[in-house]
Amino acid sequence: xxxxxxxxxxxxxxxxxxxxxxxxxxxxxxxxxxxxxxxxxxxxxxxxxxxxxxxxxxxxxxxxxxxxxxxxxxxxxxxxxxxxxxxxxxxxxxxxxxxxxxxxxxxxxxxxxxxxxxxxxxxxxxxxxxxxxxxxxxxxxxxxxxxxxxxxxxxxxxxxxxxxxxxxxxxxxxxxxxxxxxxxxxxxxxxxxxxxxxxxxxxxxx
Length: 206
Fold this sequence. Notes:
This protein is an alpha+beta fold.
């Protein structure tokens, strides 16, 4: 993102502001600030509401949208990593509690996606799996073979956690198992040095 627009977002994260206030804070011409705000509005990162401080044309008070807030630095992966680490340290310390929770989360995710599928639309397990993994940002490739199904995940939305704790891989494996209703074997994981995560339902792999 352009450095100036990022500066505007940082400023608006602290407090809503008018064009004149942003212009003064950033040391920029008001016209330039407006151009950047137009782009940020187009990208749905910023919204505004009119305010009247003096007679005449109303000013606009700009603020971050929810999308804009999500663009700012977050530490979700650290929170998830700490939660899983804490769960791994509970009970017998072998990760059973974390695995059980992620298995349940996987089932909830699958049911959410099934519920969003129109009743008059009939889709098979392979297409449903592909849709779920795409919606969850896994960038999947799902291939059928006479022996089973091979799933390749080109993106890991939890990569920051997976590189430290392999228990998070329970989630994608259980999503695949739940949809295909078949045992699934992990044949490659990024936290084991593989470039991609791969899963296989072939009997010789499971």
